[in-house]
Write a structure and sequence with these properties.
Mean pLDDT: 82
Shape: globular
Number of strands: 14
Strand order of the largest sheet: 7-6-12-8-11-10-9
Low-confidence stretches: 222-231, 351-355, 446-452
Radius of gyration: 29 Å
CATH topology of the largest domain: Rossmann fold
Largest sheet: 7 strands, mixed
Structural class: alpha/beta
Number of helices: 24
Distance between the termini: 65 Å
Strand content: 5-15%
Helix content: 40-55%
CATH architecture of the largest domain: 3-Layer(aba) Sandwich
Number of domains: 4
Length: 622
């Protein structure tokens, strides 16, 4: 494009908003690719850490002012709890930068000033009360100047609000010089870009992992076992569901890719000029009216006045508190709108909660496990970018490992095995405990850290995480805040003389999606991580081992036994306990029923089927 209009945006903020500053650049790039290319403009950020050069002036702030605040059209200010370092004239550099921008606004009126304040809860012990007081006073000052500031709850909320506000700003700005059709086109492109980002986010499981897509297969019913199973049930075409949406429940075990399927369906619908709205059950506030939740999502997309063609409710479980209430709210408010429910429980009980009735019929489908050809595509795409080895050999290795480990044929499990193979490719099968151990070594070996941080020792990490998961098992609490994680494990390290940067451990786990954020707290994305660390803790802490055994905790968490016995391959003590348990249960059954272990039901019935009867049943069940 020959004539591109440049909007220079100065970003002013104290040091505790580093992530928000990075988000600004991310949002700028998105807008440049979509609205900017269509309407002929580009945003360029101006930040002292990137754009200032060494020089001299009355002060360092004076140098920044002269170099960066002489020419700009947008000013974005951000504050959290810190106000900043005082300058010669003002209480902070950010305040001085704001006044320079405000003077330009008063003089010419062509400067856009957007100021944001983070209202996210924070540990009171980490707050400088004087700095916080200055921030509050500054809010009042902005209001006195005739400004409208905006509050946000954490970096994710900031990203959504900034994207929304900038989109609206450029729509208003550019519609004066562009026709309406172009404005509609750039809105459409902006939505497409956002939907693609959501899909890519759901596809990304580990750091530096290729984004791989495998076409999903939906059937009326499905067997999720790893063996190839003859299945003559009807396959449902994705494009048919998109073109003619209907209310449907799609069942699959956890980690089968229902979230990825959700975003894929929404993109396919949008490409067909149909608006499907995405809702995540884990992020819905059940106290808020569902219509407000839908409107909030439409506002994110800049599509407040657009009719909804279908709603997707992801991460739904019939056992989850409030799930039936949310479902009823959607069905009652959007009576004529098809609803797609992504169900991870394996069962679908519409009326499991008292006094809640759902007056809608749903067709039930199942998301299938991967076929060998689908696994080959995952391996091929991954291997093309990471060059692990011969494709056929890698494919055979992945398939055999999933069979040995008795895990589902899912994209996530394939990618996990391939991630391990990037550095530790071995054609021999491994047990699941060894697989996770190898993955942890790969994880902490490949992670990129700032130069001032040191790579944590994997065994030390297993030790502290074993302790942390021990406390979760004992307390039966599986959600935690970042502060709780860091504080508890720092105390443990101090008591045990461990030199470990817990902040780094947390960031590595979060970056690689071993832990994920949910409703303002964090949790392990897959429960097997908890069981793995618990099993390690049982090996090093006999008191905890006795706690698990004596209280029969292993009955509630059977995977703990798998990992415990897989650590050293010699854990005969746990095998003996399980054998004794089985013997006791058999004795109870025999005592209550009078049936011995050698009892043969068919012999007792004296059932003697004819050859013809046997052949008929063979044809039926083969």
């Amino acid at each position: 494009m020959t004539n591109v209009k440049i909007y220079k945006c100065f970003i002013a903020s104290p040091s505790d908003t580093r992530k928000e500053r990075d988000i600004c650049d991310k949002v700028f790039q998105e807008i440049n690719k979509t609205q900017g290319e269509q309407l002929g403009f580009r945003i360029e950020s101006k930040k002292w850490e990137n754009d200032a050069r060494p020089s001299f002036g009355k002060s360092s702030q004076d140098v920044i002012n002269k170099q960066l605040l002489a020419d700009f059209q947008l000013f974005i200010g951000i504050m959290f709890t810190k106000f900043g370092t005082p300058t010669e004239k003002f209480n902070s550099g950010t305040e001085e930068e704001f006044y320079l921008a405000y003077d330009k606004y008063e003089e010419k009126g062509d400067i856009e000033i957007m100021f944001y304040f983070n209202d996210e809860p924070i540990n009171p012990t980490s707050i400088d009360l004087k700095q916080l007081s200055n921030v509050k006073e500054f809010k009042e000052l902005i209001s006195d100047c005739g400004g409208l500031y905006w509050s946000y709850q954490g970096v994710n909320d900031f990203e959504e609000k900034l994207r929304l506000h900038l989109n609206k700003y450029f729509i208003d700005k550019e519609e004066t010089s562009q026709d309406k059709s172009n404005a509609d086109t750039h809105i459409s492109m902006s939505v497409s870009e956002l939907l693609k980002d959501r899909l890519n986010e759901s596809l990304s499981t580990f750091y530096n992992q290729p984004e791989i897509w495998v076409d999903p297969i939906l059937r009326e019913s499905e067997n999720h076992n790893n063996e190839s199973v003859k299945n003559d049930k009807i396959e449902v075409k994705i494009d048919e569901l998109v073109k003619n949406p209907y209310s449907v429940i799609i069942n699959a075990p956890p980690q089968f890719g229902l979230t990825c399927l959700s975003h894929h369906l929404i993109i396919e619908a949008w490409n067909s000029d149909s608006l499907w709205v995405y809702l995540d059950m884990n992020k819905i506030n059940i106290q808020i009216d569902i219509e407000k939740t839908i409107k909030k999502e439409l506002k994110k997309l800049n599509l407040e006045n657009r009719a909804i063609d279908c709603i997707i409710l992801d991460s739904w479980k019939s056992s989850l508190t409030g799930s039936m209430k949310v479902l009823r709210g959607i069905c009652n408010t959007f009576k004529d709108t098809p609803l797609v429910i992504m169900n991870t429980t394996g069962d679908f009980k519409l009326n499991s909660e008292h006094d809640i009735k759902i007056n809608r019929k749903f067709r039930e489908l199942t998301l299938s496990a991967l076929s060998r050809n689908s696994i080959r595509k995952v391996v091929s795409d991954y291997n093309t970018k990471k060059n692990i080895g011969d494709e056929n050999i890698v494919l055979d290795k992945v398939v055999k490992d999933m069979e040995v480990l008795n895990i589902h044929r899912t994209p996530l499990n394939c990618i996990t095995l391939l991630k391990i193979s990037e550095k530790h490719f071995d054609e021999s099968p491994i047990n699941r405990t060894k697989m996770i151990e190898m993955f942890l070594f790969v994880l902490f070996d490949l992670v990129e850290l700032p130069t001032y941080q040191t790579k944590p020792d994997v065994k030390d990490c297993e030790h502290v995480l074993g302790y942390f998961c021990e406390q979760m098992i004992k307390e039966r609490t599986y959600d935690f805040s970042r502060d709780e994680f860091v504080k508890r494990l720092n105390m443990f390290c101090d008591e045990n003389l461990l030199d470990l940067e817990i902040i780094v451990v947390f960031d590595v786990l979060l970056e690689n999606r071993i832990i994920v954020e949910c409703n303002g707290k964090f949790r392990f994305k897959a429960t097997y991580w908890i069981y793995y660390f618990v099993a390690n803790q049982m090996h090093v802490n006999n008191d905890f081992y006795q706690y698990i055994v004596n209280n029969e905790i292993y009955i509630d968490f059977p995977e703990v036994i798998e990992f415990y016995t897989g650590i050293d391959r010699k854990s005969s003590d746990m095998i003996r306990i399980l054998t004794d348990d089985l013997s006791k249960q058999c004795a109870i059954v025999e005592n209550k029923t009078g049936l011995t272990i050698n009892f043969n039901l068919l012999e007792a019935m004296e059932w003697n089927p004819s050859e013809k009867h046997i052949e008929a049943n063979h044809d039926t069940f083969s």
